[in-house]
Amino acid sequence: MTEEAGMFRLHHTIGSVLCCKCGIPVRPNAANMCVNCLRTEVDITEGLQKHATLVHCPECNRYFRPPKTWIEAQLESKELVTLCLNTLKNLNKVRLIHAEFIWTEPHSKRIKVKLRVQKEVLNGAILAQAYIVEYVQQEHMHDAARCAKKIKQMNHGIGFFFANWSHGKKFVEFIGKLVPIRSHRPSQQLVSHDTKSNNYYYKYTLSFEICPICREDLICLPRELASGLGNLHPLVILAKVSNRITFLDPFTLKHHCLDAKQYWRSPFKALLSSRQLVEYIVLDVGIVYFEVHVGGSKYALADAQVARLSAFGKNDTIFNITTHLGHLLNPGDHALGYDMYATNSNDMELEKYKDFDLPDAILMRKTYEENCQRKGGKQHPPSMNTEYV
């Protein structure tokens, strides 16, 4: 219609400018630079995470999503790419445009994702750039107890029943990585026999013992073991229990570790457990002598005066002790400890140290009365439904 009416349309042309770096003509932009020169000046992927770890369960083919969720995701699926992106930190500093997988060998335990991001750079210019994130796939057994078909509480222990031999064996290996155990020789029992196909069906039994000690237990070491550890003090506390046992001498802050083989070579039990802790009130704390770090925790040696909270104000019994909590305690604080002054112990190992003078009290940890009142006392975990035999 415009052409028939004798009118014409003016076509606008976009001019070009020379790049301030290399001099090639480019379309005008806020930085007046070409894309290649702009990338050499600014790297928008700097500071972004390019390496990460994914925890994978080989049994159920699931991936771990923190804090405590396992999700099913196939390779190169939407669920897996979502999990990969959620594990990256500082990704909110840029704008994500596209994400895609790069093929890798399945046995390489590597997953590569190519990301394309945008970000505003010099003078408001928007730059897009692609980079690759490499994920290392770590194999970890997902809640081995969930693979059990049945759980029974039996005499002196718990029985787990698995459908496959491999599940039971991996469960034993999983427990062995957490606590010191002693495995016994596996046994087998013939269940049925098919004479036509010559198939035998066996029931296998794997048994192991777990060391009967826990963190914060008070231990009286056997004389042979104490001398083998460099004449360690016979009364020690358990600072940490994993696949290794870490002892701490609360009077000298000496510490030592035992593995499963060393423990089961000369096993021992707890002299006093955390259920026998008594609350004390701190009256005075002396000068801190020195500090050590054991099992990721800090300890400081100091002298202190304490009294039993239940008898405080009723009598004048005050205990002068040495404690490993000198960096935490102040006059007026409350602490839980073992009352060695009023404890009657029939431990055979303790009776071997006839020339040993027991301390009046051994403090274990500081208590915070305000936090206990706010929480409304101790909260017990829910009980598990078990079958008794």
Walk me through what this model shows:
This protein is mostly beta strands. The chain is 13% helix and 38% strand. The chain is built from seven helices and 27 strands. It has helices at residues 35-41, 78-86, 165-176, 223-228, 260-265, 348-351, 369-375, and strands spanning 17-18, 25-26, 51-57, 62-65, 69-72, 95-102, 110-120, 126-139, 150-154, 157-161, 181-183, 187-194, 199-205, 208-210, 218-220, 235-241, 245-248, 255-258, 270-272, 278-285, 291-294, 297-300, 302-308, 319-323, 334-339, 361-367, 387-388. The strands form eight sheets. Strands 5-4-3-8-7-6 form a six-stranded mixed beta sheet, sandwiched between helices. It is flat. The termini are far apart.
End-to-end separation in angstroms reads 96 Å
Rg, alpha carbons = 33 Å
Shape: flat
Strand share of the residues?
35-45%
Low-confidence stretches: 370-389
Major sheet: size, sense and barrel closure?
A: 6 strands, mixed
Count, helices = 7
Walk across the major sheet and give the strand order. 5-4-3-8-7-6
The SS-based structural class is: mainly beta
Query: Share of helix among residues?
Result: 10-25%
How many strand elements? 27
Mean of all residue-level pLDDT scores: 82
Task: Give the secondary structure arrangement, pairings included.
Elements: E1 17-18, E2 25-26, H1 35-41, E3 51-57, E4 62-65, E5 69-72, H2 78-86, E6 95-102, E7 110-120, E8 126-139, E9 150-154, E10 157-161, H3 165-176, E11 181-183, E12 187-194, E13 199-205, E14 208-210, E15 218-220, H4 223-228, E16 235-241, E17 245-248, E18 255-258, H5 260-265, E19 270-272, E20 278-285, E21 291-294, E22 297-300, E23 302-308, E24 319-323, E25 334-339, H6 348-351, E26 361-367, H7 369-375, E27 387-388
